[in-house]
Amino acid sequence: MVIYTYSDLLQSLLEYLSEAGVSNAYWEARELAGAALGFNCRGKFDAKTQADTEQIKLCANLLARRLMGEPLQYIIGEWDFCGESFKVGSGVLIPRADTETLIERACSLLGGEKELTVIDLCSGSGCIGITLEKKLDCKEVWCVEKSEAAMYFLKENAARLNSACKPLLGDVTDESLPEKLPLADLMICNPPYISAADIKKLQKEVTFEPVEALFGGEDGCDFYREIVRLWKSRLKPEGIMMFEIGAGQEDEVMQIMIQAGMRDVRARRDMAGINRCVYGRNSVQKNEAVNLYDQLDKAERNLH
Ligand code: GLN
Question: CB–CB of 169/151 below 8 Å?
């Protein structure tokens, strides 16, 4: 009987994946060989580990799925984000390294503060809310997600990472939802932001991810407009609203926030040098500002 070890599976996977033109074939082959044998190839393992018949069948099955274009992350069933492993699969957006830009920003802006209330909108796998619940001093973290399929992964991730976050099944564009949540120090969101033109040009792997987690309307900015309009009133007076954005959306999203009366509106680049994060602070409500101005006007008139 022929004996196959991890190294043999790796070699064989590498040949198939290279032939199919997968760009980082060696790295993917390692992940798949590890998954077939039931271990994480990024940890410690023995390359001479032998595969039994079931594991060889499983390996062939994982390879077939990958060759059909399914993302590696769905096939191995988990993916790392900010040093923790999140469960992922069909129906939920895969956590991206780009999104870590938002975590870094939020932690540097709010790192010293206590008892924070955080609302993560369009939570997906929960990677943002769950990570912030660990990294910041939080009183409560709400994770709002409308898809039941994604909510399954969110709850699984909260359980496996021991997170006290509060998952809430709901549509962020529902006018009656904001009032059900407390006022937040931080409202953070990675909404769907791909435009109508770009949704037609997605990489094969991305087409396996839920289109409702990707498509953001004609210019990709529908969710920024809706969320700023509906949710700004749920920010504390100095509260921060923070978004992930797609390449080239910074001017539009900053405008939306400035026009809503937010201050200190800024953009932040990701590791690839693309503006990936836009955030701003709530400020005195516009009508209050107008009232103050009226009073000043009157007071001045009284002086003359
Ligand atoms: N970053 C994802 C992509 O480019 C998009 C995620 C989103 O729309 N929020 O595939």
Answer: yes
Residue 162 alpha carbon to ligand 1 centre in Å: 27
Do the Cβ atoms of 106 and 129 come closer than 8 Å? Answer: no
Q: Kind of pairing, strands 166-169 and 138-145? A: parallel
Question: pLDDT tens track of the chain, all 304 residues?
Answer: 688 999 999 999 999 999 999 999 999 999 999 999 998 887 888 889 999 999 999 999 999 999 999 999 999 999 999 999 999 999 999 999 999 999 999 999 999 999 999 999 999 999 999 999 999 999 999 999 999 999 999 999 999 999 999 999 999 999 999 999 999 999 999 999 999 999 999 999 999 999 999 999 999 999 999 999 999 999 999 999 999 999 999 999 999 999 999 999 999 999 999 999 999 999 865 455 555 555 555 555 454 4
Beta strands in 68-220 (DSSP E): 78-81, 84-87, 116-121, 138-145, 166-169, 184-189
Nearest CA to ligand 1 atom 2: 214
Task: Output the CA 214–ligand 1 centroid distance in Å.
Answer: 6
Q: Where are the beta strands (DSSP E) in the chain?
A: 78-81, 84-87, 116-121, 138-145, 166-169, 184-189, 235-244, 263-269, 275-281
Relative orientation angle of helices 6-19 and 25-37, to the nearest 10 degrees? 140
Give me the amino acid identity at 3: I
Distance from Cα 73 to the centre of ligand 1, integer Å? 15
198 lines ligand 1 (CB under 6 A): no
Question: Is there an atom of ligand 1 within 6 Å of 214 CB?
Answer: yes
Asked if residues 95 and 79 have their Cβ atoms less than 8 Å apart, the reply is: yes
Atom of ligand 1 nearest to the CA of 203: 10
CB of 217 closer than 6 angstroms to any ligand 1 atom: no
If you measure from the C-alpha of residue 192 to the centroid of ligand 1, how many angstroms do you get, rounded to a whole number?
A: 7
**Does ligand 1 have an atom closer than 6 angstroms to the CB of 158?**
no
